[in-house]
Amino acid sequence: MPDEPLDPVIHAASRLRVVATLAALAPRDSLAFPRLQKLLDMTAGNLSTHVRRLEEAGYVVVHKTHEGRTPATYLELSPRGRRAFEQYQDQLAALLKGAGS
Amino acid sequence: MSTDQPDVPRDVPPRIQPQVPPYAPDAEPPLDPAEGARLIREQRERTGTQMRPDGRILYGVWGVAWLLGFGALWTTTGAAGDYPTAWAFVVYGVMIVVAMVVTIVHSVRRASGVRGPSARTGAMYGWAWFLGFLVMNLVVAGVSGSGVDADVVALVANGAVCLVVGLMYLMSALLWGDGRLYVLGVWILLVGGAASLVGMPTTYLVMALAGGGGFLAMAVVTQLGAGRRRRAVAGRQDGSTVA
Protein backbone atom coordinates (compact mmCIF):
# COMPACT_ATOMS: atom_id res chain seq x y z
CA MET A 1 0.00 0.00 0.00
CA PRO A 2 2.73 2.57 0.70
CA ASP A 3 3.76 2.35 -2.96
CA GLU A 4 0.28 3.31 -4.17
CA PRO A 5 0.08 6.97 -5.14
CA LEU A 6 -1.92 9.24 -2.82
CA ASP A 7 -5.46 9.85 -4.03
CA PRO A 8 -5.14 13.04 -6.14
CA VAL A 9 -8.73 14.04 -5.40
CA ILE A 10 -7.97 14.30 -1.67
CA HIS A 11 -4.27 15.11 -1.80
CA ALA A 12 -4.67 18.87 -2.37
CA ALA A 13 -4.79 21.32 0.50
CA SER A 14 -8.28 22.76 -0.06
CA ARG A 15 -10.03 19.50 -0.84
CA LEU A 16 -8.22 17.76 2.00
CA ARG A 17 -9.59 20.40 4.39
CA VAL A 18 -13.12 20.01 2.96
CA VAL A 19 -12.97 16.23 3.36
CA ALA A 20 -11.43 16.43 6.86
CA THR A 21 -14.21 18.79 7.98
CA LEU A 22 -17.03 16.65 6.60
CA ALA A 23 -15.37 13.53 8.04
CA ALA A 24 -15.56 15.14 11.49
CA LEU A 25 -19.36 14.90 11.28
CA ALA A 26 -21.13 11.68 12.21
CA PRO A 27 -21.81 9.34 9.25
CA ARG A 28 -24.88 10.39 7.21
CA ASP A 29 -24.85 13.89 8.75
CA SER A 30 -24.67 16.74 6.27
CA LEU A 31 -23.54 20.34 6.68
CA ALA A 32 -25.01 23.54 5.22
CA PHE A 33 -22.80 25.15 2.58
CA PRO A 34 -22.41 28.53 4.39
CA ARG A 35 -21.45 26.79 7.65
CA LEU A 36 -18.82 24.69 5.85
CA GLN A 37 -17.56 27.82 4.12
CA LYS A 38 -17.11 29.53 7.50
CA LEU A 39 -15.31 26.52 8.99
CA LEU A 40 -12.89 26.58 6.05
CA ASP A 41 -12.50 30.35 5.48
CA MET A 42 -12.99 29.82 1.75
CA THR A 43 -14.86 31.92 -0.79
CA ALA A 44 -18.12 30.44 -2.05
CA GLY A 45 -16.74 30.15 -5.59
CA ASN A 46 -13.58 28.43 -4.45
CA LEU A 47 -15.48 25.99 -2.26
CA SER A 48 -17.96 25.22 -5.07
CA THR A 49 -15.12 24.33 -7.40
CA HIS A 50 -13.62 21.87 -4.94
CA VAL A 51 -17.00 20.43 -3.98
CA ARG A 52 -17.77 19.80 -7.66
CA ARG A 53 -14.53 17.86 -8.03
CA LEU A 54 -15.33 15.82 -4.89
CA GLU A 55 -18.87 15.22 -6.13
CA GLU A 56 -17.57 13.98 -9.50
CA ALA A 57 -15.36 11.51 -7.68
CA GLY A 58 -18.37 10.29 -5.71
CA TYR A 59 -16.84 11.39 -2.41
CA VAL A 60 -19.35 14.10 -1.56
CA VAL A 61 -23.12 14.04 -1.96
CA VAL A 62 -24.77 17.41 -2.56
CA HIS A 63 -28.33 17.77 -1.27
CA LYS A 64 -30.26 20.70 -2.73
CA THR A 65 -33.31 21.60 -0.70
CA HIS A 66 -35.47 24.52 0.42
CA GLU A 67 -35.74 26.04 3.85
CA GLY A 68 -38.94 28.00 3.66
CA ARG A 69 -38.52 29.77 0.34
CA THR A 70 -34.73 30.04 0.33
CA PRO A 71 -32.77 27.33 -1.41
CA ALA A 72 -30.24 25.56 0.78
CA THR A 73 -27.36 23.25 -0.07
CA TYR A 74 -26.17 20.54 2.28
CA LEU A 75 -22.99 18.54 1.80
CA GLU A 76 -22.34 15.04 3.03
CA LEU A 77 -19.26 12.84 2.85
CA SER A 78 -20.39 9.65 1.09
CA PRO A 79 -19.42 6.22 2.49
CA ARG A 80 -17.03 5.99 -0.45
CA GLY A 81 -15.52 9.39 0.43
CA ARG A 82 -15.15 8.30 4.04
CA ARG A 83 -13.34 5.11 2.98
CA ALA A 84 -11.07 7.07 0.62
CA PHE A 85 -10.22 9.52 3.41
CA GLU A 86 -9.44 6.67 5.83
CA GLN A 87 -7.19 5.04 3.27
CA TYR A 88 -5.52 8.39 2.59
CA GLN A 89 -4.84 8.86 6.30
CA ASP A 90 -3.38 5.34 6.55
CA GLN A 91 -1.10 6.09 3.60
CA LEU A 92 0.01 9.40 5.14
CA ALA A 93 0.74 7.68 8.43
CA ALA A 94 2.78 5.02 6.65
CA LEU A 95 4.71 7.66 4.69
CA LEU A 96 5.43 9.69 7.82
CA LYS A 97 6.53 6.59 9.70
CA GLY A 98 8.87 5.71 6.83
CA ALA A 99 10.28 9.24 6.79
CA GLY A 100 10.80 9.27 10.54
CA SER A 101 12.78 6.00 10.79
CA MET B 1 0.97 22.22 -20.63
CA SER B 2 4.29 22.60 -22.45
CA THR B 3 7.24 24.55 -21.13
CA ASP B 4 7.50 27.02 -23.99
CA GLN B 5 5.29 30.00 -23.37
CA PRO B 6 4.80 32.08 -26.48
CA ASP B 7 2.73 34.67 -24.58
CA VAL B 8 5.52 35.62 -22.24
CA PRO B 9 7.69 38.44 -23.60
CA ARG B 10 11.34 37.49 -23.79
CA ASP B 11 12.59 40.63 -22.07
CA VAL B 12 10.72 39.98 -18.84
CA PRO B 13 13.15 38.94 -16.12
CA PRO B 14 12.75 35.26 -15.39
CA ARG B 15 11.74 35.58 -11.77
CA ILE B 16 8.59 37.61 -12.51
CA GLN B 17 7.56 35.50 -15.47
CA PRO B 18 4.18 33.89 -14.82
CA GLN B 19 4.71 30.53 -13.26
CA VAL B 20 2.98 27.76 -15.10
CA PRO B 21 2.32 25.03 -12.61
CA PRO B 22 2.93 21.46 -13.73
CA TYR B 23 -0.55 20.45 -12.55
CA ALA B 24 -4.13 20.99 -13.61
CA PRO B 25 -5.47 24.57 -13.32
CA ASP B 26 -7.89 23.77 -10.46
CA ALA B 27 -5.25 21.95 -8.47
CA GLU B 28 -2.90 23.35 -5.88
CA PRO B 29 0.78 22.86 -5.19
CA PRO B 30 1.43 19.27 -4.13
CA LEU B 31 1.31 18.62 -0.41
CA ASP B 32 4.02 16.91 1.50
CA PRO B 33 2.74 14.19 3.85
CA ALA B 34 3.59 16.08 7.05
CA GLU B 35 1.74 19.15 5.80
CA GLY B 36 -1.24 16.95 4.88
CA ALA B 37 -1.29 15.40 8.34
CA ARG B 38 -1.08 18.87 9.91
CA LEU B 39 -4.00 20.17 7.82
CA ILE B 40 -6.15 17.20 8.86
CA ARG B 41 -5.36 17.70 12.57
CA GLU B 42 -5.94 21.44 12.40
CA GLN B 43 -9.23 21.17 10.56
CA ARG B 44 -10.50 18.40 12.85
CA GLU B 45 -9.59 20.48 15.92
CA ARG B 46 -11.24 23.56 14.45
CA THR B 47 -14.41 21.72 13.48
CA GLY B 48 -14.59 20.19 16.97
CA THR B 49 -14.15 23.46 18.82
CA GLN B 50 -16.60 25.36 16.62
CA MET B 51 -19.33 22.74 16.44
CA ARG B 52 -19.34 21.15 19.89
CA PRO B 53 -20.86 23.17 22.74
CA ASP B 54 -18.23 24.72 24.99
CA GLY B 55 -18.45 22.91 28.34
CA ARG B 56 -16.77 25.80 30.11
CA ILE B 57 -19.67 28.09 29.17
CA LEU B 58 -22.43 25.59 29.97
CA TYR B 59 -21.05 24.28 33.28
CA GLY B 60 -19.88 27.77 34.22
CA VAL B 61 -23.27 29.42 33.71
CA TRP B 62 -25.10 26.67 35.66
CA GLY B 63 -22.50 26.73 38.43
CA VAL B 64 -22.96 30.47 38.88
CA ALA B 65 -26.76 30.14 38.66
CA TRP B 66 -26.91 27.51 41.41
CA LEU B 67 -24.31 29.21 43.57
CA LEU B 68 -26.04 32.62 43.49
CA GLY B 69 -29.64 31.37 43.14
CA PHE B 70 -29.61 28.82 45.95
CA GLY B 71 -27.18 31.07 47.82
CA ALA B 72 -29.81 33.85 47.81
CA LEU B 73 -32.44 31.40 49.08
CA TRP B 74 -30.13 30.26 51.87
CA THR B 75 -29.01 33.71 53.04
CA THR B 76 -32.61 34.91 53.51
CA THR B 77 -33.59 31.97 55.71
CA GLY B 78 -32.94 32.90 59.32
CA ALA B 79 -31.88 30.70 62.21
CA ALA B 80 -35.54 30.51 63.23
CA GLY B 81 -36.20 28.53 60.08
CA ASP B 82 -37.91 31.36 58.20
CA TYR B 83 -38.87 30.72 54.62
CA PRO B 84 -36.75 32.53 51.93
CA THR B 85 -37.98 35.99 50.98
CA ALA B 86 -39.71 36.83 47.72
CA TRP B 87 -36.70 38.68 46.32
CA ALA B 88 -34.55 35.62 46.92
CA PHE B 89 -36.94 33.59 44.76
CA VAL B 90 -36.76 36.33 42.12
CA VAL B 91 -32.93 36.11 42.11
CA TYR B 92 -33.17 32.32 41.88
CA GLY B 93 -35.70 32.50 39.04
CA VAL B 94 -33.69 35.04 37.05
CA MET B 95 -30.52 32.95 37.47
CA ILE B 96 -32.22 29.80 36.20
CA VAL B 97 -33.83 31.58 33.23
CA VAL B 98 -30.53 33.23 32.24
CA ALA B 99 -28.71 29.88 32.44
CA MET B 100 -31.42 28.21 30.37
CA VAL B 101 -31.34 30.90 27.66
CA VAL B 102 -27.52 30.81 27.48
CA THR B 103 -27.57 27.01 27.23
CA ILE B 104 -30.21 26.89 24.48
CA VAL B 105 -28.77 29.75 22.39
CA HIS B 106 -25.20 28.44 22.66
CA SER B 107 -26.10 24.82 21.87
CA VAL B 108 -28.36 25.70 18.95
CA ARG B 109 -25.71 28.03 17.47
CA ARG B 110 -22.98 25.42 17.70
CA ALA B 111 -25.15 22.78 16.04
CA SER B 112 -26.53 25.08 13.33
CA GLY B 113 -26.20 23.92 9.74
CA VAL B 114 -26.11 20.22 10.59
CA ARG B 115 -28.75 17.86 9.22
CA GLY B 116 -29.13 14.16 9.71
CA PRO B 117 -28.95 11.64 12.56
CA SER B 118 -26.99 13.95 14.91
CA ALA B 119 -29.49 16.77 14.51
CA ARG B 120 -32.30 14.34 15.31
CA THR B 121 -30.44 13.02 18.36
CA GLY B 122 -29.78 16.59 19.49
CA ALA B 123 -33.45 17.56 19.18
CA MET B 124 -34.58 14.47 21.12
CA TYR B 125 -31.96 15.26 23.74
CA GLY B 126 -33.21 18.84 24.13
CA TRP B 127 -36.81 17.65 24.46
CA ALA B 128 -35.77 15.14 27.13
CA TRP B 129 -34.46 18.01 29.29
CA PHE B 130 -37.57 20.04 28.65
CA LEU B 131 -39.93 17.18 29.54
CA GLY B 132 -37.92 16.26 32.63
CA PHE B 133 -38.17 19.80 34.01
CA LEU B 134 -41.79 20.20 32.94
CA VAL B 135 -42.87 17.09 34.85
CA MET B 136 -40.65 18.00 37.81
CA ASN B 137 -42.40 21.37 38.06
CA LEU B 138 -45.81 19.69 37.84
CA VAL B 139 -44.82 17.38 40.70
CA VAL B 140 -43.64 20.31 42.81
CA ALA B 141 -46.80 22.28 41.95
CA GLY B 142 -48.93 19.30 42.97
CA VAL B 143 -47.11 18.84 46.27
CA SER B 144 -47.30 22.57 46.92
CA GLY B 145 -51.02 22.66 46.14
CA SER B 146 -51.78 19.83 48.54
CA GLY B 147 -51.35 22.17 51.50
CA VAL B 148 -48.18 20.69 53.00
CA ASP B 149 -45.54 22.79 54.79
CA ALA B 150 -43.37 25.08 52.66
CA ASP B 151 -40.39 23.12 54.03
CA VAL B 152 -41.66 19.93 52.43
CA VAL B 153 -42.12 21.68 49.07
CA ALA B 154 -38.56 23.05 49.23
CA LEU B 155 -37.05 19.65 50.05
CA VAL B 156 -39.04 17.88 47.32
CA ALA B 157 -38.14 20.59 44.79
CA ASN B 158 -34.41 20.44 45.55
CA GLY B 159 -34.34 16.65 45.53
CA ALA B 160 -36.32 16.49 42.28
CA VAL B 161 -34.07 19.02 40.50
CA CYS B 162 -31.01 16.95 41.35
CA LEU B 163 -32.73 13.72 40.34
CA VAL B 164 -33.63 15.10 36.89
CA VAL B 165 -30.24 16.79 36.31
CA GLY B 166 -28.22 13.85 37.69
CA LEU B 167 -30.03 11.21 35.64
CA MET B 168 -29.93 13.40 32.50
CA TYR B 169 -26.16 13.72 32.93
CA LEU B 170 -25.79 9.97 33.29
CA MET B 171 -27.76 9.57 30.07
CA SER B 172 -25.70 12.27 28.33
CA ALA B 173 -22.49 10.57 29.46
CA LEU B 174 -23.66 7.31 27.87
CA LEU B 175 -24.84 9.11 24.73
CA TRP B 176 -21.62 11.07 24.07
CA GLY B 177 -19.24 8.59 25.73
CA ASP B 178 -18.07 11.16 28.29
CA GLY B 179 -16.76 9.64 31.54
CA ARG B 180 -16.32 12.99 33.31
CA LEU B 181 -19.96 13.84 32.67
CA TYR B 182 -20.91 10.53 34.31
CA VAL B 183 -18.96 11.55 37.42
CA LEU B 184 -20.78 14.90 37.47
CA GLY B 185 -24.13 13.08 37.14
CA VAL B 186 -23.29 10.82 40.10
CA TRP B 187 -22.20 13.88 42.09
CA ILE B 188 -25.43 15.79 41.41
CA LEU B 189 -27.48 12.72 42.42
CA LEU B 190 -25.53 12.54 45.71
CA VAL B 191 -26.08 16.28 46.21
CA GLY B 192 -29.83 15.68 45.76
CA GLY B 193 -29.81 12.96 48.41
CA ALA B 194 -27.82 15.11 50.82
CA ALA B 195 -29.91 18.23 50.15
CA SER B 196 -33.05 16.28 51.05
CA LEU B 197 -31.64 14.69 54.20
CA VAL B 198 -30.12 17.83 55.80
CA GLY B 199 -33.51 19.56 55.90
CA MET B 200 -34.31 23.29 55.97
CA PRO B 201 -32.58 25.66 55.55
CA THR B 202 -29.23 23.84 55.05
CA THR B 203 -30.69 22.17 51.94
CA TYR B 204 -30.14 25.49 50.09
CA LEU B 205 -26.54 25.71 51.27
CA VAL B 206 -25.87 22.17 50.00
CA MET B 207 -27.46 23.03 46.65
CA ALA B 208 -25.42 26.25 46.33
CA LEU B 209 -22.01 24.98 47.42
CA ALA B 210 -21.98 21.27 46.53
CA GLY B 211 -24.32 21.57 43.53
CA GLY B 212 -23.10 24.88 42.09
CA GLY B 213 -19.55 24.01 43.14
CA GLY B 214 -19.82 20.71 41.25
CA PHE B 215 -20.70 22.51 38.00
CA LEU B 216 -17.90 25.04 38.52
CA ALA B 217 -15.39 22.26 39.22
CA MET B 218 -16.48 20.61 35.97
CA ALA B 219 -15.94 23.93 34.13
CA VAL B 220 -12.39 24.07 35.51
CA VAL B 221 -11.71 20.43 34.60
CA THR B 222 -12.97 21.14 31.04
CA GLN B 223 -10.71 24.20 30.81
CA LEU B 224 -7.68 22.18 31.94
CA GLY B 225 -8.54 19.46 29.41
CA ALA B 226 -8.83 22.03 26.58
CA GLY B 227 -5.42 23.49 27.47
CA ARG B 228 -3.84 20.04 27.48
CA ARG B 229 -5.37 19.20 24.09
CA ARG B 230 -4.17 22.48 22.59
CA ARG B 231 -0.65 21.90 23.84
CA ALA B 232 -0.69 18.33 22.51
CA VAL B 233 -1.73 19.53 19.05
CA ALA B 234 0.92 22.28 19.12
CA GLY B 235 3.53 19.74 20.20
CA ARG B 236 2.67 17.38 17.37
CA GLN B 237 2.82 20.27 14.92
CA ASP B 238 6.29 21.24 16.09
CA GLY B 239 7.32 17.60 15.74
CA SER B 240 5.98 17.35 12.21
CA THR B 241 7.74 20.50 11.00
CA VAL B 242 11.03 19.15 12.36
CA ALA B 243 10.53 15.76 10.71
What does this structure look like?
The complex is a heterodimer of chains A (101) and B (243). Chain A is of the alpha+beta class and 101 residues long. Chain A contains four helices and three strands. Chain A has helices spanning 13-23, 33-40, 44-56, 79-100, and strands at 30-32, 60-67, 70-77. Chain A has a three-stranded antiparallel β-sheet. In chain A, strand 2 (60-67) and strand 3 form a beta hairpin. Chain A is elongated. The mean pLDDT of chain A is 92. Chain B has one domain (55-236). The two termini of chain B are 33 Å apart. Mean pLDDT of chain B is 86; it is low at 1-6, 8-23 and 238-243. At the A-B interface, helix 1, strand 1, helix 2, helix 3 and helix 4 of A face helix 1, strand 1 and helix 4 of B.
Tell me the structural class of chain A.
alpha+beta
Structural class of chain B: mainly alpha
The string of secondary-structure elements of chain A, in order, is HEHHEEH
Calculate the mean pLDDT score of chain B and round it: 86
SSE run of chain B: HHHEHHHH
**Most extensive chain-chain interface:** A-B, 38 and 30 residues
**Low-confidence sequence ranges of chain A:** none
* Strand segment tally of chain A: 3
- Total tally of structural domains of chain A: 1
Q: Write down how many β-strands of chain B occur, each being a DSSP E stretch of 2 or more residues.
A: 1
Structure described in brief:
By secondary structure, chain A is α+β, with helices and mostly antiparallel strands. Chain A contains four helices and three strands. In chain A, strands 1-3-2 form a three-stranded antiparallel β-sheet.
Question: SSE layout and pairings?
Answer:
The complex is a heterodimer of chains A (101) and B (243).
Chain A: H1 13-23, E1 30-32, H2 33-40, H3 44-56, E2 60-67, E3 70-77, H4 79-100
Antiparallel strand pairs in A: 1-3, 2-3
Chain B: H1 33-51, H2 55-75, H3 86-110, E1 114-115, H4 117-145, H5 150-176, H6 179-197, H7 202-242
Helix pairs in contact in B: 1-7, 2-3, 2-7, 4-5, 5-6, 5-7, 6-7
